[in-house]
Design goal:
It is built from 14 helices and twelve strands. It has about 350 residues and is an alpha/beta fold. The longest helix is centred in the last third of the chain and has 19 residues.
Length: about 350
């Protein structure tokens, strides 16, 4: 039996969606002997059926009777394309299908919410689902998903090729945020003389002096080094009501970026893995940014250093791809054994 895994190409350069899929496929191929099936994201709404089916045949040319395929979702093609693709796979006998849900597009953007039934119909065609959290599985069940075998991802991985471990993050009273400064009001309205906000975003406007530094986007290796050198905490946050609800269900890639660098994190108390973060003492769980600032201000050097030690121990899993290895292996085992 060959295990195949799809991989995304042609999407926005540097986008987390493509980075995550390519990371998962690389780990699956290099560590678990999987075979990559490349999928190109493209726009052709009037694509003739013959052309689309020929494209499908090219993607799955290496598929054989009795194989297993892991489909990373979404493909960032229309949901109709995804549904037709999995239906095309069903033409082959005894193919086990695993859908690895990275994102649920109707939950990301309110304008796409009407597409939720189509996405759930698509997930219902899988034999096993890989879901970001238990919460998102139950949400999908409440909205029409049939009872399914499933595996929970919990955390994203963030493999690290080179990081300066001789530097230990320090209790710098800085909150780091890797996100677009223009999209978050708390960046524009940051006024705390005691806690600095450092934002990794390309500046599009000037900001009044408010203990805020916009230092520009960085490549992955540079970002990890700068976070480690800066110390303090990494912030996972959104004020947008729709996106905040989505963050309560999904695993955040940004969370693992901060942890891979070696710094503790700040997350909302509704985040799926908040119990793990508290239990492992690798970050601060809060209900508001005001509470976060207060906790950062008063955390002692001893408390912070213990957090950093805990993060370093936990991050070994993230830096070496163990969450991905486990979830892929567990899904294949589940689809063939249970």
């Amino acid at each position: 039996m060959t295990v195949h895994i799809t991989n995304l190409y042609g999407f926005v350069t540097g986008a987390v969606a493509q980075t995550a899929q390519q990371m998962v496929a690389k780990i699956g191929c290099q560590n678990l002997g999987m075979n990559e099936l490349g999928i190109y994201a493209y726009k052709w709404p009037d694509e003739p059926l013959e052309s689309r089916n020929a494209r499908f045949d090219g993607i799955i040319a290496s598929l054989a009777h009795g194989d297993t395929i892991i489909i990373q979702s979404p493909s960032w093609n229309p949901i109709e394309w995804d549904q037709a693709f999995i239906d095309h796979i069903n033409l082959y006998p005894d193919i086990k299908k695993i859908i690895f849900i990275h994102d649920v597009v109707p939950l990301m953007f309110e304008v796409n919410r009407y597409l939720l039934p189509q996405h759930i119909d698509y997930y219902n065609k899988a034999d096993v689902l890989i879901v970001p959290s238990v919460k998102i599985y139950h949400f999908l069940r409440q909205n029409g998903l049939k009872e399914k075998l499933y595996v929970v991802q919990h955390f994203w991985d963030h493999p690290v090729d080179n990081i300066n471990y001789s530097i230990t993050p320090n209790n710098s009273k800085i909150i780091n945020f890797a996100g677009d400064a223009e999209k978050f009001d708390f960046v524009k309205n940051w006024h705390n003389p005691h806690i600095k906000l450092q934002v990794f975003s390309d500046p599009k406007q000037s900001y009044p002096e408010q203990n805020l530094e916009i230092i520009g986007r960085k490549s992955d290796s540079v970002l990890l080094d700068e976070l480690r050198n800066t110390g303090g905490f990494g912030l996972v946050w959104s004020e947008d009501p729709y996106w905040s609800e989505y963050m309560k269900l999904n695993a955040s890639f940004k969370t693992s970026t901060y942890l891979a660098s070696g710094i503790p994190i700040i997350v909302n108390s509704d985040m799926p893995e908040k119990d793990t973060i508290e239990r492992k003492n690798i970050g601060i769980v809060v209900n508001s940014l005001e509470e976060a600032q207060e906790k950062v201000l008063h955390i002692s050097a001893e408390e912070y250093n213990q957090m950093v030690k805990n993060v370093d121990s936990f991050a070994k899993l993230i830096r070496e791809g163990y969450f991905t290895k486990k979830v892929l292996s567990d899904a294949v085992f589940k689809v063939r054994y249970e």
